[in-house]
Amino acid sequence: MKYQLTFICIMLFVTFVSAQEIPSKAIQIKTALLAAPDELKEGAMIYGYDERGDFIVLRKGSNDLICLADDPKTPGFNASCYHKDLDIFMERGRQLKKEGKNAKEIFDIREAEAKSGKLKMPKDGATLFVLTADEADYDPKTGEVKDSYLRYVVYIPWATSESTGLPLRPSGPAMPWIMDPGTHRAHIMINPPRN
């Protein structure tokens, strides 16, 4: 009986500590929107985490932008926003990651599914905005993020260096370049200089 009581107390403590690690809904919404362009913030849909750490919709949207709150289980701070046409692609990646697939397996599975038509990719390109910061620069209680870095990604499936005129690596600060050319995940990278 003594061991059962100890076990129950430990489980309650672990549950309490885990619940404490998930920022409030308001903080998650505030920080997810840091990655969004100003004119799209008000109507953006936002995914985040409930008190158990389950991935949920925190706010329904009224425009084409979807934002993701920082994953409290991942080191550092990372919020992102993307065009709704990327949601199927992003959701498939989340499913495969949950199944325990590694980055290469996720890439290969989505590549095969995109080639077969099972995974629908945006026809005209779609943008992703990614805001990151070191863990020490993020306060999950207040939602303050210092010294953040915003980069831009434009997905253009199947595009190549030849079809776009983009180089395969940047040769100057903030110069756009193409990554994963010729694949379902071909995208233009724009990395502004860090301050």
Describe this structure in words.
30% of the residues lie in helices and 24% in strands. The protein contains 5 helices and 10 strands. The chain has an 8-stranded mixed β-sheet with strand order 2-1-3-4-5-8-10-9, covered by helices on one side. Mean pLDDT is 91; it is low at 5-20. Residues 1-19 form the signal peptide. Keywords: Signal.
Number of helices: 5
Structural class: alpha+beta
Query: Can you give the mean pLDDT?
Result: 91
**Terminal Cα separation, in Å?**
59 Å
Order of helices and strands: HHEEEEHHEEEEHEE
Beta content: 15-25%
Residue stretches low in confidence (pLDDT < 50, at least 5 long) are 5-20
**Percent helix:** 25-40%
Rg from alpha-carbon coordinates: 19 Å
Largest beta-sheet characterization: 8 strands, mixed
* Counted beta strands: 10
Shape: globular
In which order are the strands of the major sheet placed? Answer: 2-1-3-4-5-8-10-9
Signal peptide: 1-19
Keywords: Signal
How are the elements arranged and paired?
Blueprint: H1 2-21, H2 25-32, E1 45-49, E2 55-59, E3 65-68, E4 77-83, H3 87-98, H4 103-116, E5 126-133, E6 138-139, E7 144-145, E8 149-155, H5 161-164, E9 177-179, E10 187-190
Parallel strand pairs: 1-3
Antiparallel strand pairs: 1-2, 3-4, 4-5, 5-8, 6-7, 8-10, 9-10
Keywords: Signal
Signal peptide: 1-19
